[in-house]
Amino acid sequence: MISNAHKKLEDLEHAVLELEGAHYALHDMIAFALARTPQDEVEHMAASLADNVCVHAEKIGEIRLSAYLDEVKSVTEEVRQVRSLTPGLFARLTRSRAS
């Protein structure tokens, strides 16, 4: 019989994995959409977002701030990758294998 604490831990892991999958999907959708935007605008947007969130660093906390800045950087890098790839699922999957 699974203990109540073990069941809650499994439920929490399931919820985190669902959230992570949704996060990856949004990350990719945003990167693909931004790949149609001029690179200098993408860079400006990323810098503006980073500057704006740093103003609220004390309110949101160090962990959230770090994660936010990492994600802005990650999306910006993904935009560069999307631009350099042949479009389509095959290119995305082959890039994932190479990582």
Structure description:
The protein has five helices and no strands. The protein is mainly α and 99 residues long. The longest helix has 31 residues, at 4-34.
Alpha carbon gap, first and last residue? 40 Å
Q: Uncertain segments of ≥5 residues (pLDDT<50)?
A: none
Counting helices, strands and paired strands, the structural category is: mainly alpha
**Whole-number mean pLDDT:** 88
Radius of gyration: 17 Å
Name the beta content range.
under 5%
Outline, from the CA principal axes?
A: flat
* DSSP helix fraction: over 70%
Number of helices: 5
* Biggest sheet statistics: none
The SSE order reads HHHHH
Strand tally, please? 0
What does the secondary structure layout of this molecule look like, with pairings?
Layout lengths: L3 H31 L4 H17 L1 H4 L1 H23 L4 H10 L1
Quick summary:
The chain is mainly α and 99 residues long. The chain has helices at 4-34, 39-55, 57-60, 62-84, 89-98.
List keywords for this structure.
99 residues, mainly alpha, 86% helix
